[in-house]
Design brief:
The complex is a heterodimer of chains A (174) and B (406). Chain A is α+β, with helices and mostly antiparallel strands and 174 residues long. Chain A folds into two domains: 4-38 and 139-173, Alpha-Beta Plaits; 57-120, no CATH class. Helix content of chain A is 47%, strand content 15%. By secondary structure, chain B is mainly alpha-helical. Chain B has one domain. Chain B has helices spanning 8-30, 38-67, 77-83, 87-103, 114-119, 121-125, 132-162, 169-196, 209-234, 243-274, 277-289, 291-308, 312-316, 318-352, 364-385, 398-402.
């Protein structure tokens, strides 16, 4: 397994320049390693050919687990384990379970989706990710090519042809 | 096609629908009638309140959008304008109800009966608000204010269309009218809901009721708007309205269905847990005499839109969104039905001294009246829609709306 990546990347000042560059790279059939931006750029996903995230489907099932945990848990506690009469209501008082069921649904969905997101995108404690350029988390946009996939000089020539601000080369841990 | 042509088959169909409604009303008045014609008057109140509420909420939504500088909806703004056209015939029918209440033509309200107003302690305690003068004056004044604001917003919009592109003076004026309408509609709609609907059961009250009913109106309005939009798009109109707009309309239906469920549950659980006799009477009647209806509206108004519209693609599909909209539209009508008819039947029994047989579910004649009112609503809407260009060319937000993309 290769441990290092040889990267050529261009830094852009504006998201429109980035979008145009990505579009023409796709037209030329160049393999894009990745695109970095400080915020979600509108219209970038379809150009890159990214599929719709399935995170919300996972979220639905996390929520369902929360619903069942809360509802069945309370049902078991208040009818079997430790029945207590509250306010003259029956043991299995469904309407009074609803608020807690709702809360646990939201809690499970939120925590589950957060953890899934971190795992899927390879972030979190103890994970050492490479950072091509510190400014891409601030105000710059970046289009990166892997030299293994694209010829280095061709990538540079291509970046030169777009409205690029800077071109760099870097070796990073894969 | 920038101008809607209202003619031919659609017009005939709607006229047939209106005739069905009139025939049903006549049947209710003369055939299936009791001493005070409670079926007839109850259906007029129920349907007019539902459809007028939807028209009011369309106006409210438009005012809220203008105030919030909303851009995405401009391309179908005329549909919202047309939707509140029903305020005019609705106001006339409400006025007939209010005058009828004043002169005792009908006995929908127990508090309007002088015997109960004097001898029933709960009702006489509320008679400062619940009296025939208040009912008449509030109906005239508040509905009159709604009509004034509707007229202003509509005529400014039409004048803007006739003006030159880039002239924002009309829009600035519209913004003032829209912003003032929000608090006005908020307070007056609550008062009218208390008077028109909540007071059919004068011994009972709930502070959530006005919110609850207006959320029903909201969701009903969006579902009918989605259906009309799907119909018009099928006919080739509104070609600039994309899937993105339909998607956002679906989001509104989804959101307001959840909002409805939230208010339903708030009202229900607090009364259930508080267990105070004068409050629980409302739900006891619904659950013991109308259990099928009670759970049907929960399924139609919450479970169906919640699970049906949850996925992105469902809100973009005409078939799924349209079917859900049909179900929620009927669901919210059944909801208002359940808030009105059982209590009208009770009032009738109190006044005539005879037990009134109430169906556990609306019968065919009652559905016929609903179809009549729906046809009238759509007739007025399409008539209004055909009077102006479908796309407001000079609206400052039109360009943003055409490029709406999420």
């Amino acid at each position: 397994m290769k441990k290092r990546k040889d990267v050529v990347y261009g830094i852009y000042n504006d998201e429109h320049d980035l979008l145009n560059a990505v579009r023409s790279a796709k037209d030329k059939g160049m393999e894009i390693m990745d695109v970095y931006s400080p915020f979600p750029v509108h219209g970038l996903d379809p150009i890159l050919g990214l599929k719709e995230s399935r995170l919300h489907i996972a979220g639905f099932f996390y929520g369902l687990v929360g619903t069942l945990t809360a509802f069945l848990g309370m049902t078991w506690i208040f009818t079997k384990d430790w029945p207590i009469i509250f306010g003259g209501k029956p043991y299995w008082a469904v309407p009074s379970f609803i608020p807690i069921t709702f809360e646990l649904t939201v809690l499970f969905a939120a925590i589950g989706m957060t953890i899934s997101f971190y795992v899927v995108s390879g972030m979190g404690f103890g994970v050492d990710n490479f950072i091509l350029d510190d400014r891409i988390s601030d105000d710059k946009f970046c289009l990166a090519f892997d030299k293994d996939e694209v010829d280095a000089s061709a990538a540079k020539d291509f970046l030169e042809s777009t409205n690029v601000e800077e071109i760099h080369e870097k070796v990073v841990k894969a | 096609m920038n101008r809607f042509e209202f003619s031919g088959k659609l017009k005939t169909t709607l006229l047939i629908g209106i005739v069905i409604g009139i025939v049903s009303l006549i049947l209710e008045y003369f055939v299936y009638s009791d001493d005070v014609h409670s079926l007839f008057w109850g259906d007029v109140l129920l349907n007019n309140a539902y459809f007028m509420g939807m028209a009011l909420m369309a106006l409210f939504v438009m005012a809220a959008f203008i105030t919030a500088w909303t851009g995405w909806y401009t391309v179908f703004k005329r549909l919202l304008e047309a939707f509140n056209a029903y305020l005019i015939p609705g106001a006339v029918i409400m006025l007939i109800l209010a005058i009828g209440n004043y002169f005792g033509w009908h006995h929908l309200y127990l508090w309007a009966d002088s015997h109960f107003a004097e001898h029933d302690e709960v009702i006489s305690g509320k008679s400062g608000f619940l009296n025939i003068n208040m009912y008449l004056i509030a109906t005239i004044v508040f509905v009159g204010l709604w009509l004034l604001w509707r007229y202003k917003l509509r005529s400014l919009s039409l004048r803007e269309d006739a003006g030159v592109k880039g002239d924002y003076s009309y829009h600035r004026k519209m913004r003032n009218w829209a912003a003032t309408f929000l608090p006005l509609a908020g307070y007056t709609s609550a008062i009218m809901i208390w008077l028109w609907l909540m007071s059919v059961e004068p011994h009972w009250y709930s502070t959530m009721y006005a919110w609850y009913t207006s959320s029903s109106w909201f969701a009903g309005s969006w579902s009918l708007m989605i259906l009309v939009m799907i119909y018009l798009k099928g006919k080739g109109y509104f070609d600039k309205v994309t899937k993105e707009h339909i998607h956002d309309m679906g989001k509104y239906l989804f959101a307001f269905s959840i909002f409805w469920a939230y208010l339903f549950f708030d009202q229900y659980m607090l009364i259930w847990f508080g267990n105070v006799g004068e409050e629980t009477a409302h739900f006891k009647l619904q659950q013991t005499e109308y259990p099928f209806l009670f759970f049907t509206i929960l399924i139609l108004n919450f479970i169906v839109p919640f699970l049906g519209l949850m996925i992105n693609t469902a809100k973009k599909s005409f078939w799924i969104l349209g079917s859900v909209a049909v179900l929620t539209f009927i669901g919210h009508w059944l909801d208002i039905y359940l808030q009105v008819k059982p209590y009208v039947a009770e009032t009738t029994a109190e006044i005539t001294g005879k037990h009134v047989h109430a169906f556990p579910f609306p019968n065919l004649v009652e559905f016929g009246v609903m179809i009549g009112f729906l046809s009238l609503f759509l007739f007025v809407t399409f008539k209004c829609l055909s009077k102006a260009n479908l796309i407001p060319e000079n609206d400052p937000y039109l360009e943003e709306s055409l490029h709406h993309h999420v």
